[in-house]
Amino acid sequence: MGIASARGCAPLHLNEDNGRLVLLALLIVAYLVCGAAVFSALERPTELQARAKWNRTVRNFADRFDIAAGDLSAFLRDYEAAIAAGIHSDTLRARWDFTGAFYFVGTVVSTIGKENSSGRLSEEGQERGVNLSECGVSQ
Fold it and tell me: What is the pLDDT of residues 102-125, one digit of tens each?
């Protein structure tokens, strides 16, 4: 009894440094979960409204110009792929000229911007993003 009780439950024993690391990891996960809940609650309703408006616009366009819904959807997917690849109908300026590349590098270096790959944020979402990032940076 003396040896077993002195060691305690060895697999669950954490020294102070490991305990702090586990606590920090749990706090970071909780911080991320809370941030995701806030942004989901803020941005989801706006996204649903925008999607409904877009679907009405596409439906009206297809009806007005007598285009099959499948053909229009295929065209729009191709258009989205072109936009994602950086191809724009405005050919006045290349996307990857020096100023475009400078903007990209600045965004990557700062890691905090108004736009990201998930889309544009509402004004309230932008404000919360700045607040959230300031809170996270100050930790």
Answer: 887 777 666 654 444 445 667 776
Could you tell me the domains of the chain? 16-111 (1.10.287.70)
Q: What is the pLDDT of residues 57-101, one digit of tens each?
A: 999 999 999 999 899 999 999 999 988 877 777 766 676 778 877
Please give the Cα distance from 84 to 82 (Å, whole number).
Answer: 5
Token reading at 92: 């006045």
Three-class DSSP labels, the chain: CHHHHHHCCHHHCCCHHHHHHHHHHHHHHHHHHHHHHHHHHHHHHHHHHHHHHHHHHHHHHHHHCCCCHHHHHHHHHHHHHHHHCCCCCCCCCCCCCHHHHHHHHHHHHHCCCCEECCEECCHHHHHHHHHHHHHHHHC
Does this model's pTM top 0.70? My answer is: no
